[in-house]
TrEMBL record:
Name of the protein: Acyl-CoA dehydrogenase
SUPFAM superfamilies, per database record: Acyl-CoA dehydrogenase NM domain-like
Domain Acyl-CoA dehydrogenase/oxidase N-terminal as annotated: residue spans: 6-116
UniProt entry keywords in alphabetical sequence: FAD, Flavoprotein, Oxidoreductase
Database matches in InterPro entries: Acyl-CoA_Oxase/DH_mid-dom_sf, AcylCoA_DH/ox_N, AcylCoA_DH/ox_N_sf, AcylCoA_DH/oxidase_NM_dom_sf
Lineage top rank: taxon: Bacteria
Gene3D superfamilies the UniProt entry points to: Acyl-CoA dehydrogenase/oxidase, N-terminal domain, Butyryl-CoA Dehydrogenase, subunit A, domain 2
GO molecular function, one term: acyl-CoA dehydrogenase activity
Organism whose genome encodes this protein: Acidovorax cavernicola
Coiled coil segments of this chain: none
C-alpha cells in the first residue's frame, strides 16, 4: 500500500501552503478576527483555488476529489488557523451529493463549488449534549412542501451562511431539510467563538423547508464523520506549524 501523496496532491498542498503564507498571515488573521471572524473575500479566494469544489461531483461543476485530497487541503489551512469554514463546504457537498434529490443537487452543488453559496450544517441543540438522535425540532407537511420549527445552536459561521442543513422530527423520525437564509421565519443571532471565528443561533418559526431525505440520522452520521476527519486534519496542520515555530524560536 502506497501512503505517498500523488503528484496532484503534492501540487494541491503546495498551492494551499503558498496561499496561506502569502494571503493569510498571522497579521491578516488578526485583522479578520477584529472585523468579526469571517472574511467573504478570503472565502472567495478559497473558491478560486478550487477548494470549495474539491468534494463536489464533476457532474455539478466540482472536482470530484476524494477524502485524501480534502485532508491535504485542510491540513494546510490548519497551518494558518484559517477561520473561513471550508469544512462546511465539504460536509454540505458530501451530504447533498449522497442524500439530496436530483433537483436540490442541481440547484446547490454548483453554487457550493463556485463559492457563491455557503451551506452549513445546523444540527446542534442545547439539550442534545452532542447526541445526534436527540432532536426537538419539528417539521410538518404544508401544501406541497414542509415547514420547520427549530432552534439550533453553535451553527458554524451561521450569520454568514446562505443556506442551512437542518434536521427535524418528521412523522416520528429525524429527517434532513434545507432551509434558505431568506425564508420567512428565519432569525439569526451571530457571535464570536473562542478561536476567533463565527457561530450563530438559528431560529426557524413556521419556516418553509425543502425535504432532502427522511434518512436524517444516517445523513447526519455521514456529515459528522466528514467534519471530524476534516477538522482532525486541520488540527494536525496547526500542531505541525506550532512545532515548527517553536523549534525555530528555540534555535
Amino acid at each position: 500500500m502506497d501512503f505517498n501523496f500523488s503528484e496532484d496532491q503534492q501540487q494541491l498542498r503546495d498551492a494551499v501552503r503558498r496561499w496561506v503564507n502569502k494571503a493569510y498571515t498571522f497579521e491578516r488573521r488578526r485583522e479578520i478576527v477584529a472585523e468579526g471572524g469571517f472574511s467573504r473575500a478570503a472565502y472567495t479566494q478559497l473558491a478560486e483555488l478550487g477548494l470549495t469544489a474539491l468534494a463536489v461531483p464533476e457532474a455539478h461543476g466540482g472536482l470530484g476529489h476524494g477524502p485524501v485530497d480534502v485532508m491535504v487541503a485542510m491540513e494546510e489551512l490548519g497551518r494558518g488557523i484559517v477561520l473561513e469554514p471550508l469544512a462546511q463546504a465539504v460536509v454540505a457537498s458530501a451530504v447533498l451529493s449522497q442524500y439530496a434529490p436530483a433537483e436540490a443537487q442541481a440547484q446547490w452543488l454548483p453554487k457550493i463549488a463556485s463559492g457563491e453559496a455557503l451551506v452549513v450544517l445546523a444540527h446542534q441543540e442545547r439539550k442534545a449534549r452532542w447526541r445526534l438522535d436527540v432532536c426537538s425540532a419539528t417539521a410538518t407537511a404544508s401544501g406541497s412542501g414542509h415547514v420547520i420549527n427549530a432552534h439550533k445552536s453553535l451553527v458554524p459561521a451561521g450569520d454568514q451562511a446562505d443556506t442551512f442543513l437542518v434536521p427535524a422530527q418528521l412523522n416520528g423520525h429525524i429527517a434532513l431539510f434545507l432551509v434558505e437564509r431568506g425564508a420567512s421565519g428565519v432569525a439569526l443571532r451571530g457571535y464570536g467563538t473562542q478561536d476567533g471565528g463565527r457561530a450563530a443561533e438559528l431560529q426557524c418559526t413556521d419556516t418553509p423547508a425543502t425535504l432532502l431525505t427522511q434518512h436524517g440520522l444516517t445523513a447526519l452520521t455521514l456529515a459528522l464523520d466528514v467534519a471530524n476527519a476534516a477538522l482532525c486534519a486541520e488540527a494536525v496542520g496547526a500542531m505541525e506549524q506550532t512545532l515548527a515555530i517553536t523549534v525555530d524560536y528555540m534555535n
